[in-house]
Amino acid sequence: MHDEYQFLKEMIEKDPFINYVQIKVEDIQKGYAKLSMPFRKEITRLGDIANGGAIATLADTAGGTSVLSYLEWKNQVTLNLEIDYLEPVSNGPVTAEARVIRKGKNVVFSGIEIRDGNGKLCAVARGVWFIKD
User: Rounded distance, CA 106 to CA 101, Å?
Assistant: First the structure.
């Protein structure tokens, strides 16, 4: 990770909610972010699989981080997040890789892939973020 993104990494990991769910930034580049979340009891549901809300939180955070890196830290908010759950997540760490797909005048689109601890693709998502000036 380049030094210029260290501040962004620290800012994201200090967010109270992100810290609570233990999401960590693994890599940031312009328009790209890789984040991870440990697989632990607190994010599971019946059947010892990850809760969809925990996966959505990781996807939203990864997508938002990719957008922040692309916009040079202009604030943004999520307008829409669509997730397709392909496989249950039953091990970790769970990772999300997000890439900016396109930037418009007021919105940015990001695509996200969620993988389990074995690297298996378990969910795909696409989000839209509104640029706040």
Answer: 14
The DSSP string of 13-29 is: HHSHHHHHTT-EEEEEE
DSSP strands (E only) in the chain = 24-29, 32-37, 44-45, 49-50, 76-85, 94-103, 107-115, 121-131
CATH number of residue 102's parent domain? 3.10.129.10
Please list, in sequence order, all residues whose beta carbon lies within 8 angstroms of the beta carbon of residue 29, skipping any fewer than 6 positions away.
Answer: 1, 2, 5, 69
Q: How many domains does the chain have?
A: 1
Largest CA distance in the chain: 44
pLDDT per position as a tens digit, 72-95: 767 889 999 999 999 999 999 999
Residues 6+ apart with CB under 8 A from 106: 130, 131
Q: Specify whether the CB–CB gap between 23 and 38 falls below 8 A.
A: no
Range of the domain at 85: 3-131
Task: Give the per-residue pLDDT at 2.
Answer: 62
User: Strand, helix or coil at 75?
Assistant: coil
For the chain, give the mean pLDDT.
93
